[in-house]
Amino acid sequence: MAQRRLTNDEIHRLGPCLTALRLLAHPKGIRRDILIEKNIDEFLRTDPYSLAHALERLRKAIHYEELERREGEDWSVAKNYVRLLLHRMAS
Q1: Which pLDDT tens digit goes with each residue over 29-58?
Q2: Within a domain: residue 1?
Q3: Which of 27, 49, 70, 90 could staple 53 via S-S, CB 3.0–4.6 A?
Q4: Which residues span the domain enclosing 45?
Q5: How is residue 20 annotated by DSSP?
Q6: Domain for residue 47, yes or no?
């Protein structure tokens, strides 16, 4: 099954969140896991769509960021936190 790409509007909304997550993807910060979670939580609080849709858009955006394979980036914390939130919603 082919996945739908993010629209320009969705990318624009995710912009500030993804910019911060890109900086935090470099595994050299103290307590970066907490900063990543706070950044994601803030995005979810301010997103005008439903929580489920916001989490799905964020999951896709993180997936596409991982595909870029930029040197030194580790998206596992953000990816796992979004997965955890999606799992909690499904339970």
Answers
A1: 778 899 999 999 998 888 777 888 889 989
A2: no
A3: 49
A4: 10-90
A5: H
A6: yes
How far apart, in whole angstroms, are the C-alpha atoms of residue 67 and residue 76?
Answer: 13
CA torsion 34-35-41-47 (nearest 10°) is -170
Question: Please, which pLDDT band fits residue 20 given cuts at 50, 70 and 90?
Answer: confident
- pTM for this predicted structure: 0.79
Total domain count, the chain: 1
Residue 24 CA: distances (Å) to CA of 33, 53, 67, 77, 88: 8, 23, 17, 10, 24
Cα–Cα distance, 11 to 89 (Å, whole number)? 23
Q: What is the DSSP letter of 62?
A: H
User: Do the domain assignments include residue 2?
Assistant: no
- Local structure of 25: helix, strand or coil: coil
Q: Are 43 and 35 in contact (CB under 8 A)?
A: no
Is residue 5 a part of any domain in this protein?
A: no
What backbone phi and psi angles, to 5 degrees, belong to 87? -65, -40
| CA 55 – CA 41 distance, rounded (Å) | 10
